[in-house]
Hints:
Residues 1-27 are annotated as: Disordered. The chain has two domains: 1-30; 39-207, no CATH class. Helix content is 63%, strand content 9%. It has helices spanning 4-29, 41-64, 67-70, 100-124, 128-151, 173-187, 194-207; strands at residues 72-76, 80-87, 154-159. The two termini are 33 Å apart.
Amino acid sequence: MARDPIRKPAAENAGQTAAVKTTTRRARAKNLPPQQVNDLKVLGIVSAVVFLLDQISKYLIVHVMRLDVLREIDVLPPWLNLRMAWNQGVNFGLFSSSQDIMRWVLVGVALAVCLWVWFWIRRTRPGWPTQLAAGLLIGGALGNVIDRVFYGAVADFLNMSLPNWRNPYSFNVADIAIFAGAIGLILMPPHGGGGDADKTRDAPAKSG
């Protein structure tokens, strides 16, 4: 009768140990330490929020407010205006071309950049500020990709000018996110070496 209380905790400890080992193996299979398995949630959430905000704003501007017909609406002139522009190039109309091949080249470049940034973040596993910046860039880039695929050009509608100076360029929510994300990645670049740090943390556990 006295042996049962002793055996029961031992069985529970064995079960807990097995669960920890299983979690560790799964984390290592994904090349992520156990405590960082869900770290990429920040990147995914920010990307999704930016993408949705960009697409919702463009839908309202083009299909509800019909700015593509009205062309321009003064909000706080001259500081802020809604001015419709279909951009076939990149920011500020660079590399603009009426040829359809350039449209798909820009789509391919944007998708390649998104994949590269995602793998970069996944491999280095930086903190949430860097993942926030990466999410802004990826979400904005994907928003403009959708425009190119369905409209053939990016819908730009925000314009900021100054007294006695009319800014000829327009931009959108995605452009703001891409710019902010790129600046963030420059100021807070993800650093490698996470794998070495993980090995150092795992060493005492293995020797034990």
